């Protein structure tokens, strides 16, 4: 098993007043040649947006973009005709493909919105753009990982143009679960949303990240109540 640890306080820090963003990987003005990506996981931004502020209309292409609100409500609009609110407990995916234009705003006038923005390099380019979001409340489980994203349209959760599987686990102190790699050659990036956990003897706390590869699986144990996002992705780009 190979691992790499990214502690919360070593991430890139961009504070624009209305936006405070922590970058696990190089993004915008934060450039770290040793942190460009984890396999096809290219962006993991931990964003806090002030009341009624947000990102105006801007374009994307050839990227799978996943948003997971952690607190508050995020308003989304795009040139595909989607106008929706993404709330805590939801997950959103957007295949930018041949090109999309969208905006994201804090829908709350009295509190910040906190959300993860995740970019995955797709295994297909120039696909037809698409948008989807679901609530996770009906599929959430306690003390075990549950799938929230996969490559398959008919699987649980949303889907993406990539051999990637995302799982979330919500654990009470002392509980554990095993995770098995879905596809040979993939790795897993574990991101601790809340609490304290342990993987392979490594202790991780809130907003720490750990990349794991060259293994068939691993065991995660909650040393305090914890919530964890696992992102399994190919470790090599498709040529």
Q: If you consult CATH, what is the topology of the largest domain?
A: Jelly Rolls
CATH level 1 name of the largest domain: Mainly Beta
Q: Helical residue percent?
A: under 10%
SSE-based structural type: mainly beta
Strand order of the largest sheet: 1-20-17-22-15-13-14
Q: In this structure, how is the largest beta sheet organized?
A: 7 strands, mixed
CATH architecture of the largest domain: Sandwich
Mean pLDDT: 95
- Give the amount of beta strand, in percent: over 45%
Gyration radius (Cα, Å) is 17 Å
Count of all domains: 2
Instruction: State the order of secondary-structure elements, H for helix, E for strand.
Output: EEEEEEEEEEEEEEEEEEEEEE
Question: What is the overall shape?
Answer: globular
Question: What is the number of helices?
Answer: 0
> How many runs of DSSP E, i.e. beta strands?
22
Protein name: Pirin family protein
Domain Pirin N-terminal: 13-120
Keywords: Iron, Metal-binding
Pfam families: Pirin, Pirin_C_2
